[in-house]
Write a structure and sequence with these properties.
Length: about 60
């Protein structure tokens, strides 16, 4: 006896899988990981603090 499948749900699962693959490809080519964003933000803040510490008061 064959397994009964709901075609509507099968289409939704296939669409979700395709969307997930497309999102992963986009993230790999354009995005940064959460750790990379945090490291970049920390470096920016450190550079800003370093410059602020060396400003002369007038």
């Amino acid at each position: 006896m064959s397994k009964i499948i709901n075609l509507r749900m099968a289409r939704k699962h296939a669409a979700r899988a395709a969307k997930r693959v497309r999102a992963e490809e986009s993230a790999a080519s354009h995005g940064l990981t959460k750790a990379e964003r945090a490291a970049q933000k920390a470096a920016t803040e450190k550079a800003r603090a370093h410059l602020d510490a060396h400003k002369r008061e007038t």
